[in-house]
Amino acid sequence: MSCYLITGIAGFIGSSLAEALVAMGHQVRGIDNLSTGDRENLAKVQNEIDFRCIDLGDKSEVVAACEGVEYVLHQAAIASVPRSIEDPEASHQANINATFNLLQGARNAGVKRIVYAASSSAYGDQETQPKQENMLPSPLSPYAVQKLACEYYMQSYYHVYGLETVSLRYFNVFGPRQAADSPYSGVIAKFIQKMLSGEAPTIFGNGQQSRDFTYIENVVKANILACTARRDQVAGRIFNVGTGKSYTLLQTYDLIASLLEFSAGPKYGEARMGDIEHSLADIQNARHALGYMPSVGFEEGMQKTVSWYKGQAIRKAAMEGAVP
Ligand code: UD2
Predict the structure, then answer these.
(1) Which residue in 59, 138, 192, 298 has the most C-beta neighbors within 10 A?
(2) Euclidean distance between the first and the last CA atom of the chain, given in angstroms as a whole number
(3) Angle 59-66/98-109 helices, nearest 10 degrees?
């Protein structure tokens, strides 16, 4: 049994990691400032984890949270390209300064390894597909710059202080519990939510942009593997975490519409600033060094995701109906 600290534990990815680690019998501590996370996400594990409602800006609390921890899974972030364009300072604070505080806390507490939620946005809009880790990064949005800057910080703390770090460049993660109610929510959650409420979702641009949409279970596995992989294979390194297959937004729209039996076509809006045309992961490095293999594909993941949101909608309607 090991002691894990998950930052952003009340978020969609953080809470999924918590459930998996608790099920494996590990000790889990989690921190979250609940700015975008939701305690509801921790309903299944709340009695089995040490949850602390703190902000990564609070240095003394961060140091205390790192005490006795072997592995940190750093998920806390303001994870949105458009939000970083609208409010770059808040994003900078939450994505860079917070990560710096965590690195300092982890180093002081003698944490063994930090696994960091990096982003495929680091590649920017380069034409070469699939994206390989040795390509020169070309971040477009403030969010992409922030995520990339922290990869460099991770590498530096390994090289300079010997703190083992592994950066996982997530490719558009989706799945149950992803927030759907904000204009900054991920596209799959937004599309499902809209269709469930009987409204046609909006595609920004022509819908031909493509993403390597990665189901949450694959991301959870990658994190767990990144903790236990041999130091000489992974420390100070960066790995793509995707599936190696991509789908256009129109294909994604059609799949969700067919699963929900939603017959209306999409609305169209202007292409989003800072948006990337195509994104596809080369996962060879993760395969060799981590033993990572995506086990849930796009369609299966989408079925699971859609049925979760459907269940939520039914529960919500039942609760509203029960109120006199
Ligand atoms: C980026 C990263 C992703 C992750 C995420 C932050 C890339 C390729 N991916 O995701 O790995 O770090 O940021 O959590 O950089 N869209 C619509 N209608 C909507 C919402 C979105 O058409 O209502 C489009 C959007 O313009 C984009 C695509 O859907 O082309 C995906 O958007 P997103 O916000 O879900 O994720 P993205 O690609 O910015």
Answers:
(1) 192
(2) 48
(3) 40
Ligand 1 atom, smallest distance to 276 CA: 8
Residue 253 lies in a domain: no
> Smallest Cα–Cα separation from 94: which of 103, 86, 84, 106?
84
Give the domain CATH number at 38: 3.40.50.720
Pocket test of ligand 1: the residue of 172, 173, 202 to mutate, having most ligand atoms within 8 Å of its CB, is 172
Q: What are the start-end ranges of the E strands in the chain?
A: 3-7, 27-31, 49-52, 71-74, 113-119, 164-170, 173-174, 202-204, 210-211, 214-215, 237-241, 247-248, 267-269
Q: Is the C-beta atom of 120 inside 6 A of ligand 1?
A: yes
Cα-trace Rg, the chain: 19
Three-class SS of residue 193?
helix
| Distance (Å, whole) CA 143 – CA 257 | 30
What pLDDT sits at residue 321? 80
Domain presence at residue 166? yes
Structure tokens at 228: 């236990």
Task: Answer yes or no: is 281 within a domain.
Answer: yes
Q: Which residue positions in the chain have pLDDT lower than 50?
A: none
Asked whether 187 lines ligand 1 (CB < 6 A), one says yes
Domain that holds residue 29: 3-177+214-243+276-295
**Is there an atom of ligand 1 within 6 Å of 81 CB?**
yes
- Nearest residue (CA) to ligand 1, atom 29: 187
Note the pLDDT of residue 297.
98
Ligand 1 neighbourhood includes 210 CB (under 6 angstroms): no
Does residue 184 have an active-site annotation? no
How many structural domains are present in the chain?
1
Q: Biggest alpha carbon distance in the chain?
A: 62
pLDDT score at 171: 98
